[in-house]
Amino acid sequence: MKKFDKRVDRTGTNSVKWDYRNEIFGRKDVLPMWVADSDWRTSDAVIDAIIDRAEHGVFGYTKPGKETSELVVNWWRRRYDWEIDPSWIVYTNGVVPSLSVIIDTFSRPGEGVLLQPPVYYPFFTSVKRGGSQIVTNELKLEEDGYRMDYAGLKNLCNPDGKSIPSAPPPSMMVLCNPHNPVGRVWKEGELNRLADICLENDVLIVSDDIHSDFVYEGNSYLPIASLSKEIANNSITLTSPSKSFNTAGLPASIAIIPDEKLRERFRVARNKVLKRPSVFGLEAMMASYRDGEGWLDDQLAYLQENMEFSRKFVAEEIPPVNSFEPEGTTLLWLDFRSLNLDQEDLESLIVDEARVGLDFGHWFGPGGDGFVRLNFACPRETLEEGLERISSAVKNLI
Ligand SMILES: Cc1ncc(COP(=O)(O)O)c(C=O)c1O
Fold first, then answer.
1. Is residue 178 part of a domain?
2. Residues 78 and 224 in one domain
3. Looking at residues 379-391, what average pLDDT do you find?
4. Shortest-distance Cα residue to atom 7 of ligand 1
5. Distance CA 179, CA 190 (A)
6. CA pair distance 323, 379, nearest whole angstrom
7. Residues above pLDDT 70, as percent of the chain
8. Is 176 in the pocket of ligand 1 (CB under 6 A)?
9. What residue ranges in 65-189 does DSSP mark as E strands?
């Protein structure tokens, strides 16, 4: 049996995905495939590092040092050919909290922050909380998948006078690469076009690259900040090993900020309201980047098979539903629009008939209606059970 095939009972661990089913979906018997964490144990290297540290027994104030930064720098150099200067790294305890603080720091209330929905819904909350205005440039769904709408971007950043956008020109944009939920891993040409528009219009690029370690055959992840010095100096890249190593309950994240002025402003804000990684978050981060690469690659191979299995299953067994090939992430974006259900009926089909807990497309903003998101980072048996449940529910309906 492969290590990722083993089903681990997560109930009773205060798991958001498993123990809050009733609160989220109104019933306890849904098979949860929503939250983007994985249903398997992390690597032994991480578990051993945490046990060792726990046995030390003293958990005082802790700060990542030179060794941690070397591990981070090596990871990005080795895997993504990006040369990060260790001084660019600011450690934090969460990508979403970091994003909120970045929005508060670099965007004044009332200013626009550009998002490209359908996109990870906490982005909307982070912008709203800071008093900034959400400016949306919806992704375009074309024959061959999702694309950025460059004409829309240009017009929102610098209106031509003919069309009047409903929100102020943005001072910042939040990129998601790989893109949750649609699974695109943005290509060099796409990133360059986006960066050109941002540079021309003085729009700071904040790139949430937390899913960067999940990229499938035939695709390669490219950090936007690695494209040129000019882009790097107009960017903040946020990431964490927590998705890759399934350690989201041990918050430890990184902001990579090449420009010194931006970095120092963020560091001051970080010190006021955020924390560095906790003792165990830091141990997990270091063990992941030092000893976890083999485990990560095994996991990627398993995820590749899960992704192919679920796409084939949907195509053969649930033909009214269309799935998009994820180039990255562990998320399958499913299009239920051909069933012509309104939102309430779609939710009832998924939750009450299929008894599966998924993220509903409308949570992800404009462009999400009629879609759902399924996380396939689970043992194959669980995945098959979830897909079977959806298939029976759809077959009963039509
Ligand atoms: C795009 C994206 N960013 C950030 C997060 C969460 O990051 P954190 O737990 O470090 O706040 C997620 C989790 O699903 C995500 O998908």
1. yes
2. yes
3. 98
4. 95
5. 13
6. 20
7. 98
8. yes
9. 89-92, 112-115, 133-136, 140-142, 145-147, 170-176
Domain end call among 291, 312, 330: 291
pLDDT at 163 over 70: no
List the one residue out of 312, 336, 328 whose CA is nearest residue 384: 312
pTM over 0.85: yes
Sheet containing 359-360: which strands, arranged edge to edge? 322-323, 331-335, 371-375, 359-360
* pLDDT tops 90 at residue 161: no
Instruction: Look up tokens 């063990």; give the residue.
Output: 287
Confidence of residue 164 (pLDDT cuts 50, 70, 90): low
> Measured between alpha carbons, how far is 291 from 303 in angstroms, rounded to an integer?
20
Average confidence (pLDDT) over 366-394: 98
Q: Judging by DSSP bridges, how do beta strands 140-142 and 145-147 pair with one another?
A: antiparallel
Q: Which residues pair with 115 in a beta bridge?
A: 136, 174
Q: Does the beta carbon of 210 sit less than 6 angstroms from any atom of ligand 1?
A: yes
The two structure tokens encoding residue 60: 């005082």
Q: Is the CB of 92 under 6 A from ligand 1?
A: no
pLDDT in tens, 22-79: 999 999 999 999 999 999 999 999 999 999 999 999 999 999 999 999 999 999 999 9
Domain that includes residue 330, residue range:
2-32+294-397
- Alpha carbon distance 244, 241 (integer Å): 5
User: Of ligand 1's atoms, which has the minimum distance to the CA of residue 243?
Assistant: 13
Domain containing residue 392: CATH number: 3.90.1150.10
- Hunting for tokens 């700071």 — which residue is that? 204
Amino acid in the structure at residue 344 = E
User: Is the shortest distance between the CB of 255 and ligand 1 below 6 Å?
Assistant: no
Cα atoms in the 13 Å half-sphere on the side-chain side of 158: 11
Q: How many residues does the chain have?
A: 398
List the one residue out of 198, 183, 186, 174 whose CA is nearest residue 122: 174
Q: How many helices (H) and strands (E) does the chain have?
A: 14, 15
In testing the pocket of ligand 1, which one of 96, 102, 206, 376 has its CB within 8 Å of the most ligand atoms?
Answer: 96
Query: What pLDDT, in 10s, does the model give residues 250-279?
Result: 999 999 999 999 999 999 999 999 999 999
Round to whole Å and give the CA distance between 5 and 1.
6
